[in-house]
Amino acid sequence: MLIGVVKEIKPAERRVALTPAGTEELVGAGHAVLVERGAGDGSGFPDEAYAAAGAKLAANAAEIWGEVDLLVKVKEPVGPELALLRQGLVLFTYLHLAADPVLTDALVSSGATGVGYETVEDAAGQLPLLAPMSEIAGRLAGQVVAHYLTSPMGGRGILAGGAPGVAPARVLVLGGGVVGVYAARVARGLGADVTVLERSDDRLRYLDDRFEGSVRCLMSDAHSVVEQLTSNDAVVGAVLVHGAAAPKLIKRSMLSFMPPRSVIVDVAIDQGGCAETSRPTTHEQPTFVVDGVVHYCVANMPGAVPVTSTRALTNATLPYLHRLADLGLDEYCRRDPGFAKGVNVRDHEVVHPAVAASYRGRAGAD
Question: Can you give the pTM of this predicted structure?
Answer without folding.
Answer: 0.92
